[in-house]
Amino acid sequence: MFYGATGTHKTSNLGKAALWAMKKYGKPTRLVSADGGGWEPIQSLVDAGIVIPWQIRDRKFQIESVDQACQGYWPVDPTDPTSPLIEPFRVTYSGTCKVCGYEMKTNQAPRQQAYPCVKCKEQKPPIQSMVLITSKRTPNPENDLSQVAVVAYEGLTSFGDLMMTHLQRTKASLSQDPSFVWEDGSTSYAGGNMTYYGFVQNRLLEFVMKSNMLPVEKVIWTALEGRGQDDLTKAPIYGPSIVGKMATGKAGAWFGAMLHFEACESLGDVEQDPTLKGGVVAVKSQVRMYLRNHADAFTKVMFPAKTRAPYQYASQLPEYMETDVEKLYNKVDELRAKALAEVRAIQTKQEVAV
To answer: Of 36, 45, 1, whose CA–CA distance to 306 is shortest?
Structure first.
């Protein structure tokens, strides 16, 4: 998760992550965007084919589209809002006869768990054998995620706002019954909360968890920073912004690593202004990428941040660094290699001792 106020280089660092992935894996990055600002800071990477973007705001069934995007679906033509979405996997059903070794295959879900072997039935006299049919998920060659290094979602805040607007525009009726079912397109969603806020928060958690299962090198989300309240203490908390103040502090647990981008201001030189007495103080700002929890300079409320560096060397990462996620990824890779070498050395010593 990259989160921070607008203008703190989150989109630019998606581009840096895409460059890092292209150098390391030789594969492009997919960007699913609901941000109104678009991806102009990384347009050069889009033009070069390093980042492949998809603006999801103009889809008809927006909640269903976000859901499917988080499962790895991709449009035939990302520039066409009516383009069909292609699933990343296909399910096939097969079984092998234990008597004759014949393999039975089908693309349709079987109505029963086992069938008589087609080949054995044709023999005289027939051999009575049943073939157990099991399912298997295979990559879809029309949407092969093995050819993608990173999938980025921009962003958590925008998706939540988009879903709220979609519910309001379609006048969705979410029953007070906790077992209500609401449909968006061909997808049904069961609810456990009678409000739009609860519905959107539950869906966002579900969608993030689905994206975490994608078989790519990295999944990255962005979000604006927000201020909310703790459910129990009502104390102010900061974190990635999603709909509903009570949910702001929850999103951090949905992600492995979370980086906070913050513009830190400092006093500059005094510039004399003839229209104002005493002159004007110029303000300079520097954007930092925080890797650990840190306190707001004015409110002293903590902003959460964390990395997934190996525990043996996690202390070697600074509290913050310049906003260059490529340098962070390279440093974490270096620490992981160092930690692995250390563990293997211990294993070797133990094996020699034995």
So the answer is: 1
Q: For residue 37, give both structure tokens.
A: 């600002």
Sketch out the chain's domains with CATH numbers: 2-82+144-261+288-339 (3.40.50), 89-139 (no CATH)
Close Cβ partners of 204 (under 8 Å, ≥ 6 residues apart): 156, 159, 160, 163, 242, 251
SS3 for 313? coil
Residue with tokens 């998809």: 54
- Any residues with CB less than 8 A from the CB of 165 and at least 6 apart, and which? none
Q: What is the mean pLDDT of each run of 10 residues along the chain (354 residues)?
A: 94 97 97 90 96 95 96 96 95 87 84 84 64 88 96 95 90 70 83 72 93 96 87 81 77 92 68 55 76 90 92 93 95 95 91 78
**Rounded Cα distance, 297 and 105, in Å:** 64
Contacts of 58 (CB under 8 A, 6+ apart): 81
* Dihedral angle sign, alpha carbons of residues 302, 304, 305, 309: positive
| Cα–Cα distance for residue pair 52/157, rounded to 1 Å | 21
Q: Which of 290, 289, 282, 288 is nearest to 266 (CA)?
A: 282
156-169 helix and 196-211 helix, angle to the nearest 10 degrees = 140
d(CA 343, CA 126): 59
Reported residue count of the chain is: 354
Q: What is the DSSP secondary-structure string of 226-248?
A: EEEE-TTT--EEEEE--SSGGGT
**Alpha helix segments (H runs only) across 26-143:** 43-47, 62-70, 118-121
Q: Which residue has the tokens 């994608």?
A: 214
